[in-house]
Amino acid sequence: MEKIVKTYYDGLDEGRLLGRKCTGCQAVEFPPVLTCNTCGELHDMEWVEISGKGKMIDFFLPGMMTHQPVNDDMKPYVYGSVEIEEGAYFNCMIKGIKKKHRDFVEKHLPEVPVHAIIVPRDGYKMVAFEVDEDFMEE
After folding, report:
1. Residues 58, 109: contact at Cβ < 8 Å?
2. In a 3-state reduction of DSSP, which class is residue 73?
3. Torsions phi, psi of 100, nearest 5?
4. What radius of gyration, in Å, describes the C-alpha atoms of the chain?
């Protein structure tokens, strides 16, 4: 597992998003995992570069119990689910949605276009998503 984690974070340092593709069922896993979550088989997995494009499926605004001060530099953001073009579906932070946008965004779910961003943190980088700029109404 350490090799997978290292390769993933090395990719982020290079500005690349890496996932793993199952050689059995062809499913792409992102973030990368050791074995395929789709078919459950222990097939070989190969590294693939992820486009970073996807769509937001759902979201919720951070509240008193879910707010984390370490994420203040990401404001405005929500927590939500994203499905990337390559098929993987997962939970993440999604930047660019204010409370005033809630109704507009909810009307367009699950087709809200998003793209991945690599966010520097203290000693490492993480992946978040951001709503495509030309989608959001002001």
Report:
1. yes
2. helix
3. -65, -15
4. 16
pLDDT digits (tens, 9 = 90+) for 72-103: 899 999 999 999 999 999 999 999 999 999 99
Beta bridge partners of 20: 29, 47
- Total-model pTM: 0.89
Q: Does 138 have pLDDT greater than 60? A: no
Residue 84 β-bridge partners:
54
**What SS3 class is residue 120?**
strand
b/e burial code for range 64-84 (CB count within 10 A of at least 16 → b): eeeeeeebeebeebbebbbeb
d(CA 47, CA 50): 10
Cβ atoms 82, 99 nearer than 8 A: no
Strand order through the sheet with 18-22: 28-29, 18-22, 45-49
Confidence class of residue 126 from pLDDT cuts 50, 70 and 90?
A: very high
Can you tell me the distance from the alpha carbon of 131 to that of 57, in angstroms, rounded to the nearest whole number?
A: 12
